[in-house]
Amino acid sequence: MMPSNQSRPLVAQSDGTLLLSESHPRYAEARDILRDVAELRKRPGEWHTYRITPVTLWNAAASGWTAEEVVANLRDLARYGLPALLEAEIRSLMGRYGKLRLVREDELVLRSEDPGLLREALSYPGVDACLLGPPACDSVPIRPEARGWIKRELIARGYPIVDEAGYRAGEALDVELRRTTEDGRTVALRDYQAEAVEAFAPAAGGRRESGSGVVVLPCGAGKTWVGMGALARLRCETLILTPNATSVSQWIRELLRNTTLRERDVGVYAGERKEVRPVTVATYQILTHRQTKDGGFPHWKLFVDRNWGLIIYDEVHLLPAPVFRMTADLQATRRLGLTATLVREDGREGDVFALIGPKRYDAAWKSLEREGWIAKPTCREVRVPLDEETAPLYQAAPKRARHRIAGENPLKLDALRRLLSLHPERQTLIIGQYLDQLRFVSDRLGLPVITGSMPQSERERLFDRFNRGELNALAVSKVANFAVDLPDASVAIQISGSYGSRQEEAQRLGRILRPKSNGADVYFYSLVSEGTDEVEFARKRQQFLLEQGYRYEVDRFVPEAPSSSPTPAPKEART
Q1: In whole angstroms, what is the distance from residue 396 CA to residue 47 CA?
Q2: Region label for 300, one of left (φ > 0), alpha (ψ between -120 and 50) or beta (otherwise)
Q3: Exposed/middle/buried for 134, CB within 10 Å: 0-12, 13-18, 19+?
Q4: pLDDT (tens digit, 0 to 9) for every residue of the chain, 575 residues total?
Q5: Does residue 340 share a domain with residue 208?
Q6: Does residue 330 sit in the same domain as residue 381?
Q7: Which site in 149, 153, 252, 569 is 20 to 30 Å from 536, CA atoms measured?
Q8: Could you give the CA distance from residue 318 to residue 285 in angstroms, rounded to a whole number?
Q9: How far is residue 180 from each of residues 58, 185, 260, measured CA to CA in Å?
Q10: Given phi > 0 = left and psi -120 to 50 = alpha, else beta, which region is 243?
Q11: Helices (H), 97-137
C-alpha cells in the first residue's frame, strides 16, 4: 500500500468502489469528476460510496473522456494511489469503446480494428444468430433486423458497439421554430439547449455516429425545447413517446406555440384518441397495452406504419421493457432520449446505452442554477416520530408491510401543518405515494387531491387553477412526478415515496425548479418516520441529488404536547 496522503479526498479500491470524504476541502472538485465517470451508490455518513461500472465509463468515453484522463484524475484524487487492477480495468473497458463499429457498406457490417477483440465478441452463445455470413479477419456481415439485438447482446458482455451505419431520413416535414409566439414572446433556444441539439444532431460535417443518444438536463431546464430543436434541425416526421396524458397535452401545446406546425400536423395517440399525423405524441402506456398477459401489443403498429425520421423518448429512464424490445427493431430511425437522470432502479442503463444511444449531452444541475436557468432549492429531511399507536404496529409488522406503515405515519399530518404555516403565501405541492394518505390529508386540510384515476380534464382544470393562483396548495399522487408544468410552485412537501427511488426524488424536486419571476429560492421537504426503514430509503433516494451538489439539512419534528404552549418550529426548517 502506498503511503497515505491526507490532502487527497478519495480512497480507491480494486473492485471499482470509490470512497469520497464529504468533509475534505477537495470534495466538490472530486464529486464533479466522479459524476462523469462513476455513480453514487450510498452515503452512510461522511464517506460517500461511488462505483465505476462499464456503462459509466462508456458514457464518459462517448462524452469525450479518454482512459488516460480518467486515470490521471483518479490518481490525483486517490489518497492511497490508484490500484493497479482498477487502472487496468479502466483502460481495458474504455479501450474497447470505438473498437467495434457498425457501418453500412453494401450491407450492414460489424467492423473492428482489433481482430482479436472481434473474435472474442463473436464467440458468445447467441451472437451467431445475428450474423448474415461468416466473419472475415476484421469484419462480419450483420442481419439488418439484428442491428439493435447485437448491440444489446454484446454490451451485456462488455463489448460496446459504436453505430455508424446511418439512419433513414424519414418523411420530410416542413417545420421550424417560430421567431415569436402569437403573444409576441421571442422563441429561441438557450445556449445549453442549442448545444444539446448540436451534440445529438450536428450540422453537416459532424460526428458520423450522431443521430441517436440521450440528453440529460435538470427538471425545469427545458428538455422539451431540445426535442423541438431536434425536430426543427432534422425536419422530418416524428413520433414522441411520453409517460402520461398530461405530458402529451404539454408537448402538443409547446409544439403549436413554438414551431410552425399547425393543429392538423400534430396527432394524439392516447386514451380514446388514435390520431397518426406527421408529428404524433403517444404514451408508453398505450404502446404496452394488451388485452391479455400473453397477448400481442396491438398499438405497436404505430412504430412501423409511418416513415418516422425521428423518435423522441421523453423521460427515457422510464422506458418499459416491451418498448425496449420494439426499439431494438428500430435502429435505422434516429432516436433521442430526454431525461433528468440516467439512473434506472432496475439496472438497465446498459439497454438505454445500447438501444437509444450513449449520453450525448449532460448539464450539471448546479451549473444551470448558478446561471439562473433553474431555481435554487433548500432541501430538508424532517424526521417525524411514530405515534404511540403506530410504533407497536410497525414493530410487529412483517418487513414488507413496514414501509407503508412508516409512510402513512399519522404524525406527519402535524409536521405538514407546521411546514405549511412557514410558507403561507407560497404555491405548495404535497406529494405522496399512498392514495388513502393523500385523501386523509385532503380531508383534514381542505385541499383538492389529484390521483391517477381522476379524468384528465379534471386534472388539467385543477392544475390551471393552481397556476392562476386560485389554489395555494395541491395534494398530488405520483402522477405528478413527471411532466407537470407548474411554473409558480415553489414548495414541495414529500409525505411518502416509493422506497429508495433516486429517480422519484429527482423528479419531485424538479416540480419546483422552474425559475421564479421574482428570483425567489424554493423549498423541498421530505417527511421521514424516525427509527424506521424510511430513514435508510431516504438516504438512497437522495443519492442522485447529492451527486449533483445538493445538500439535505436533517431535522427532527417535535410534536406539540396537548397541554403545553406551541413548540417552536424546527431551527433548520425556518424561513
Answers
A1: 33
A2: alpha
A3: exposed
A4: 444 567 899 999 999 999 999 899 999 899 989 989 998 887 767 888 999 999 999 999 998 899 999 999 999 999 999 999 999 999 999 999 999 999 999 899 999 989 999 999 999 998 999 999 999 999 999 999 999 999 999 999 999 999 999 898 999 999 999 999 888 899 999 999 999 999 999 875 555 557 899 999 998 899 999 999 999 999 999 999 998 888 899 999 999 999 999 999 999 998 888 899 999 999 988 888 887 777 778 888 888 888 999 999 999 888 888 888 888 888 989 999 999 888 777 777 888 888 999 999 988 888 899 999 999 999 999 999 999 999 999 999 999 899 999 999 999 999 999 999 999 989 999 999 999 999 999 999 999 999 888 888 898 899 889 989 899 999 999 877 766 778 889 999 999 998 888 888 988 998 999 988 888 899 999 999 999 999 999 988 998 888 888 889 999 999 986 544 333 333 333 22
A5: yes
A6: no
A7: 569
A8: 11
A9: 40, 5, 10
A10: alpha
A11: 115-122
For residues 108 and 154, membership in a common domain is answered with yes
Q: Is the alpha carbon torsion for 437, 441, 442, 447 positive or negative?
A: negative
Q: How many domains does the chain have?
A: 4
The candidate with the shortest Cα–Cα distance to 320, out of 287, 359, 293, 296, is 287
Judge if 311 and 346 occupy the same domain: yes
Between β-strands 359-362 and 238-242, what pairing exists: parallel, antiparallel or unpaired?
unpaired
